[in-house]
Design a protein that fits this description.
Elements: H1 3-13, E1 18-22, E2 35-41, H2 50-61, H3 64-67, E3 71-77, H4 79-85
Parallel strand pairs: 2-3
Antiparallel strand pairs: 1-2
Helix pairs in contact: 1-2
C-alpha cells in the first residue's frame, strides 16, 4: 500500500488530522513488507486515552489493517503535545 494512500485514509477519517507515514525498516524485495509507522496529530485526540487515540487511527484504516497492512507503529499527539516536542 502506498504511504500517501495511508495518510489520506487517516486524514480523511480523523478531524483535522495531519498524518505522516513511513516504513520503519528496509523493504525486503523477496517478501511483501507491509510494516508501517505513523505519526498522527489531531485535535480529535484531546481528552482521549492513548488506546482510544490508536483506535481512531485503526478505525480510519478499516479493512486495510487485515489485508494491506501487517503492522502499524503509532505515535499520536494533540497539536499542543506535538508542539511541545519541537521546543
Amino acid at each position: 500500500m502506498e504511504l500517501a494512500a495511508i495518510e489520506e485514509l487517516i486524514e480523511s477519517h480523523i478531524e483535522d488530522a495531519d498524518a505522516t507515514v513511513s516504513r520503519p525498516r528496509t523493504v525486503d524485495e523477496n517478501h511483501e513488507d507491509d510494516h508501517y509507522a505513523a505519526v498522527v496529530v489531531s485535535p480529535a485526540f484531546e481528552g482521549k486515552t492513548l488506546v482510544k487515540q490508536h483506535q481512531l487511527v485503526y478505525d480510519a484504516l478499516g479493512d486495510h489493517m487485515t489485508t494491506d497492512i501487517h503492522a502499524m507503529e503509532l505515535k499520536t499527539y494533540t497539536p499542543k503535545e506535538y508542539a511541545s516536542l519541537e521546543e
